[in-house]
Amino acid sequence: MNQRSIQRQERLLQALAGGGSLRLADAAILCGVSEMTLRRDVSTKDSPLMLMGGHLVRRDDPHFTPVYDLETQQDRGADIKARLCRRASGYVEDGDTLFIDCGTTLVPMIAELASRRDLTVVTYALNVANAVSHFDGIRLILLGGVYQGVSQSFDGEDIARQVRGLGINRAFLSAAGVHAARGLSCFHFHEVAPKQAAIETAAQRILVFDDSKWGVLRPAFFGALSDADIIITHGEGAAGLSRTPEVASRLVHP
Predict the structure, then answer these.
(1) Alpha-carbon dihedral of residues 192, 132, 177, 247, nearest 10 degrees?
(2) Rounded Cα distance, 121 and 169, in Å
(3) What pTM does this model have?
(4) Is the CA virtual torsion 70, 71, 74, 76 positive or negative?
(5) Could you give the dihedral angle defined by the CA atoms of residues 29, 33, 36 and 37, in that order, rounded to the nearest 10 degrees?
(6) What is the pLDDT of residue 69?
(7) What is the H or E stretch that residue 50 is in?
(8) What is the pLDDT of residues 78-90, one digit of tens each?
(9) What is the Cα–Cα distance from 35 to 43, expressed in whole angstroms?
């Protein structure tokens, strides 16, 4: 690592001293170099910075855990996820158009929808689409783009516009981090646009998460707790939300 690279990274470390992330484009302007130069700077194994979804973060920031593998998450807390999803499915009505978020939390809900009629499911998650495809009575809209294997979801500039063009009755949202003060976050920046579009578009927004997500911050923020009309969780998450007066009234126990 040459001296100029060290100086650039020291400047960026100062900019990130309070935590959070910095867009690569903004970091390039701050340092007066190209984005490609900064990519090379942080690609070395001894760099104190790392690039996540077009944003720079400090490697030593405990709030940013870049490793997420959907396969390892699949069976984690399966019984709890199934219980949360049974409660969530109770809000679905015949004829609804549903947005179902990516990840593993909401997949068990698909089986609960088999008895409903004339449903449409909108998703950008391959695992959700695969589950829906087994039910002939559910219309499936899979939003496309570049496939991101780590989360089995799609990343495309047009996805948010597609979501906004649909009449969504209920958006079922998942989060990798739920924080009383900082709101809702996820691991991957490409998930932010479809989540936000669903929040803006849906007549009702339902947040479902298990209590391992409570009090946690992840790299990509996509909304506030106030964006959810209904919150379904349990354990520590439910206890924490019950102490938050402005959202406690929207808390539902499974």
Answers:
(1) 100
(2) 10
(3) 0.73
(4) negative
(5) -130
(6) 47
(7) strand 49-52
(8) 889 999 999 999 9
(9) 12
